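Morning!

This is the sequence you dropped in the shared folder:
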Amino acid sequence: MTTMQALVAHAIGEPAEVLRLETRPIPQPGRGEVRIRVLATPVHPSDLHILRGRFGIAPTLPAVMGSESVGVVDALGEGVDDVSIGQRVITVGVRETWQEFVVADARRVLAAPEAVSVSTAAQMITNPLTALLLVTNQLEVKPGEWLLQTAAGSTVGTMVLQLGIRLGFKTINVVRRRAGVEEIRALGGNEVICTEDEDLRKRVTEIVGPGGVSKAIDCVAGQIGADVSRSLAPGGKMIVYGALSTHRQTEADKLTIPIFARSIIYETKIVQGFSSLAGSRPHLKSRSRRPLEKHSNWSPAEYFEFLKENRSR
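The structure's back. Tokens below.
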């Protein structure tokens, strides 16, 4: 076999309209590299935002998207002696994974634990590290503190729930549908707000009092993000790491979070963005060590167990 299938974007626009399945030559590994037959690769919201031209990062077209994968090593380049053919591995910092084969620096792969499913192994970098960075590096949520989060049923949201249990902070979890409430409670959520039939700001006041919460994370944006910002205490901080409510929006005025100037000026609230793709890679790498060292001190076995417990459904 000399060719493979790749999902290729030839323009910026709606993914269903600009992506095409194409036949390409199978790449060959060079010195210090390995070739991986991809078993699974996730589609992250950031991938869709980039394709729609909303992320601030423009791919060089034609482009193959994807930033994570799990697969089986099927060829070794010269000088590689610590990875073996047939080994199941996870790629770290390897781009263009939406194709059947990828070539990676041998130092950019990690052995995938046998106990971890393919679907979980394919998502072991971006979502887990996002959850860890948000609650530790970005907000430094302390034991006993409240953390308000939207999209609590998402992969990152459920991991934040488990981090709350492990690190001792309490969570107020926002979901869109009543059907998701019991699931979040079963996963350890302290309080759940369903925006289908509840007023977010009113419920936050009932839970923590009129002072509001000091820390929040949001990946929905739009009016939900605005309600979260208004639920902050004076001096409180909200980290925005996604905009799920805007995925199919094309009107500029809908790609916003309405925020009162008074809240920023007189109540000194902070609304700050976060993305694992923003800024330089060395900057992200240096900061990403802090939560593991400062708060958790988990062994690899404990980290993998956390991932197994919170795998995507």
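Headline: Residues 279-301 have pLDDT under 50 and may be disordered.

More detail when I'm at my desk.
O.
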